[in-house]
Design goal:
Length: 137
């Protein structure tokens, strides 16, 4: 069984690789470029990464094909949403929280590449009840 510690280790690695991408490329590029570079680093370092997969959405037994997609899913545990915005807004957080709920994943990370320092201002992490129910170690 996966633990909170394992998920936190994956999250730290994701943020670390995002910082590497940001240091090398800097701000000002398209989100898709950062997504490809971050995916490359994660995959190169042994992580399983899915990109731009459709999220199934059901409303009152109606299956909706609404082109809802996450940016990255790492090791089938952590959803990563990438942004290139002036600042995070509540809708960015709501989007990630909804993806976490729909996919029943324990943790999500918002990363903004349009900032000076990803570690200080360019990332936010969120956990769900699925995370809280996992063993710590």
């Amino acid at each position: 069984m996966v633990t909170q510690k394992q998920i936190n280790d994956i999250s730290r690695a994701i943020i670390g690789y995002a910082i590497e991408v940001h240091k090398e490329l800097g701000p000002g590029l398209l989100e898709s470029i950062y997504e490809k570079c971050l995916t490359h680093l994660l995959t190169e370092n042994g992580f399983k990464v899915e990109r731009q997969r459709n999220i199934p959405l059901t409303f009152r037994s109606l299956n909706l094909d609404c082109e809802l997609r996450f940016d990255l899913l790492v090791n089938d545990l952590v959803i990563v949403e990438l942004k290139t915005v002036e600042f995070f807004s509540p809708i960015h957080e709501a989007q990630l929280l909804t993806y976490l709920k729909l996919l029943r994943k324990p943790k999500g990370i918002l990363i903004n590449f349009n900032c000076i320092n990803i570690f200080k201002e360019g990332q936010r992490t969120f956990v769900t009840e699925y995370f809280k129910d996992l063993p710590k170690e």
